[in-house]
Amino acid sequence: MPDPHTASAWWASEQAKGSRSLILSSLAFSLMTVCVKQLNGRIPVAEIVLVRAIISLGLTGVSLKLAGVRPWGTAKARGLLFARGIAGSIALLCFFQAIDTLPLAAATVLQYTYPTFTALAALLLLGESLRKRIVVAVLVGWVGITFVVQPDWLTSDVRALPLIPALIGIVGALFTALAYVSVRRLSVTEHPLVIILFFPLISVPITLPWVIQAGVWPIGIEWMWLVGVGVLTQLGQVWVTDGLRCLPAARATSINYIQVIFAASWGWLWFSESISLWQIGGSGLVLIATIISLSAKK
Q1: What total number of domains does the chain contain?
Q2: Gap between the Cα atoms of 147 and 154, Å rounded
């Protein structure tokens, strides 16, 4: 039998806290994608990002005031805070653009290459060591995700993707990785709410001109789904920022693979999407990747 004192000590450790935060963030982000799917493509991508940013600005501003935290961070970190906001905004726009122009399965595979980019960026920019278990977790998780989303080349004849949209998807994954590495570095000195603030602060001026030119006024229940996108993203950002404070970037992003299981579950329960043997096998690999990541010693 495991020692209860050892188990309770691990549960209270920074490692366990970071892991719980990352799993909760994956749950929140998966529910956010449900809200986006409910909008059914009528609302432009830039408008969804803008509404999300406005909601996040309001919630973060109130939280900063209640916590008595200065919103602009330390002077030395301001450049990196702006870089984190730019990277996150570009990543989100690229990801949604890839979804708009590529099959969803292909766009998802491209986006979920970001843990590999994160591990490499953390090695090059932060000097974090790349443990063998983390490398294995990243690779196993990527294979699992490929099985879950079932790209055409996996289950039928090979068909080439359009080059430009595919490159946009890869660029989105790269900027996602840069955003994660920036959060990891910033979390050493900056309050999590300050880090979160700069994401919507940059997203608003980036997306506002597009929305002014080609925006669509939401109707009826679309308002609820838009608010859901903003609120759930805010929760996901809070939890992922806390998780990256507690765990190395490469390990943290490998845990995020569990979001694929949440997404497959919502597809089955909410949208009556069938689950194939490929998806069951892929979900198992995602779980294995998460367990491998959690078992890696600090």
Answers
A1: 1
A2: 8
